[in-house]
């Protein structure tokens, strides 16, 4: 008899009800919930191996302090970048040139926005990503095919090639975003030079292919979770970009999949995390690897992260056709991917959402 009182679970309607609050995951936490709603529950098989399988593995850390000193010093950095991009797809950078106060201020700006009065945040709420320079929501793929909703809220801003006007950005984070993004653009230029050299090409090669043209900044807020073993902060995915520059705070939770094991990317104060995106794996014909990663939910929090994606904007995607670079293919090493446009790739990636599968594999020859 008892089963009759159970309400049938309608994931779409529950996702829609959550979305219509426009208050995100933080709204749930502010309401003092003690149990994670069903739409956030990840399938049981996704929960296996939450702890890193290999405890003593760490992604490479590269010191950029000597990169401009002399040719030998730069070559030593290029060798380390090459190793990291080929074997790990991820590395941390120290002495990267972005002042520590700028890193602190962007994290504070992200926190200030997400902890703003909900009525103020709602003014920026949107799922119309194609027509807004700045937007706030929870889970870009909420209505996609992802099996569960992630425990995080997000705001995002298209920075380049057409920067927003100051008035388009909330006052809580406006100055911090302009200042931080200026430094990220500069660091991105250097990274693409080093990656070009790591491929044995001229330092301007990747820049000339407009890898640096678009910049999308995505600022995540992961509230503390009452039942972190039931959900994820971000599901397993690889990035829809050429390159991602990530700033994370001291909470932790980021893991990368390395040789079939989850490896923690522990917070390193003052460092920035760099990872290869799907587009760079494609145009380097698998020379550099775009690696799957995820973020665990945590009782501690909020966790703040700022991800800056180079050329991952399906709003202003350039119309250039990309395929494996002719300099890197030969009879012995033929192209492994068909040609694509960024828009074609991004539209499919967004529609698919973070469902745990690789979108890049759809383009293999």
Question: What are the main properties of this structure?
Answer:
alpha+beta, 8-stranded mixed beta sheet, 9 helices
Q: Main sheet? A: 8 strands, mixed
Point out poorly predicted stretches: 1-5
Tell me the strand percentage band.
Answer: 15-25%
Count of runs of 4 or more consecutive helical residues: 9
Coarse structural class = alpha+beta
Spatial order of strands in the largest sheet: 1-2-10-7-12-5-4-3
**Rg over C-alpha atoms, rounded to the nearest angstrom:** 20 Å
Shape: globular
Task: Walk me through what this model shows.
The chain is of the alpha+beta class. Helix content is 28%, strand content 19%. The protein has helices at residues 11-21, 24-30, 71-87, 100-114, 118-122, 174-198, 205-208, 278-283, 342-352; strands at 61-63, 90-94, 134-137, 153-160, 215-222, 232-237, 243-248, 254-258, 261-264, 272-276, 293-296, 303-310, 321-322, 340-341. The termini are far apart. The longest helix has 25 residues, at 174-198. Helix 3 crosses helix 6 (174-198).
């Amino acid at each position: 008899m008892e089963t009759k009182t159970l309400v049938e679970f309608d994931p779409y309607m529950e996702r829609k009800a959550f979305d219509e609050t426009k208050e995100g995951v933080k709204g749930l936490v502010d309401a003092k919930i003690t149990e994670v709603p069903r739409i956030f529950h990840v399938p049981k098989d996704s929960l296996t191996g939450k702890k890193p399988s290999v405890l003593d593995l760490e992604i490479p850390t590269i010191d950029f302090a000597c990169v401009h000193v002399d040719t030998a010093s730069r070559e030593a950095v290029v060798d380390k970048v090459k190793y990291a991009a080929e074997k790990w797809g991820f590395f941390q950078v120290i002495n990267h040139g972005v002042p520590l106060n700028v890193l602190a201020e962007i994290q504070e700006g992200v926190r200030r926005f997400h902890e703003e009065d909900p009525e103020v945040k709602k003014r920026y709420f949107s799922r119309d990503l194609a027509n807004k320079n700045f937007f706030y929501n929870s889970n870009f793929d909420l209505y996609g095919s992802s099996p569960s909703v992630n425990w995080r809220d997000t705001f995002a801003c298209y920075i380049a090639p057409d920067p927003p006007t100051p008035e388009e950005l909330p006052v809580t984070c406006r100055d911090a975003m302009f200042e931080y993004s200026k430094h990220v653009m500069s660091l991105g230029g250097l990274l693409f030079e080093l990656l070009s050299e790591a491929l044995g090409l001229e330092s301007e090669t990747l820049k000339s292919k407009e890898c640096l043209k678009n910049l999308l900044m995505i600022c995540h807020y992961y509230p503390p979770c009452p039942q972190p073993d039931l959900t994820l902060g971000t599901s397993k995915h690889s990035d829809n970009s050429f390159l991602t520059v990530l700033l994370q705070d001291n909470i932790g939770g980021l893991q990368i999949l390395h040789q079939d094991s989850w490896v923690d990317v522990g917070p390193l104060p003052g460092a920035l995390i760099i990872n290869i995106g799907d587009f760079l794996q494609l145009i380097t014909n698998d020379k550099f690897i775009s690696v799957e990663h995820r973020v665990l939910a945590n009782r501690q929090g909020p966790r703040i992260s700022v991800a800056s994606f180079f050329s991952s904007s399906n709003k202003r995607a350039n119309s250039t056709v990309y395929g494996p670079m002719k300099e890197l293919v030969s009879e012995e090493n033929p192209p492994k991917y068909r040609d694509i446009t960024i828009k074609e790739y991004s539209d499919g990636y967004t529609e698919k959402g973070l469902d745990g599968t690789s979108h890049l594999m759809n383009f293999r020859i």
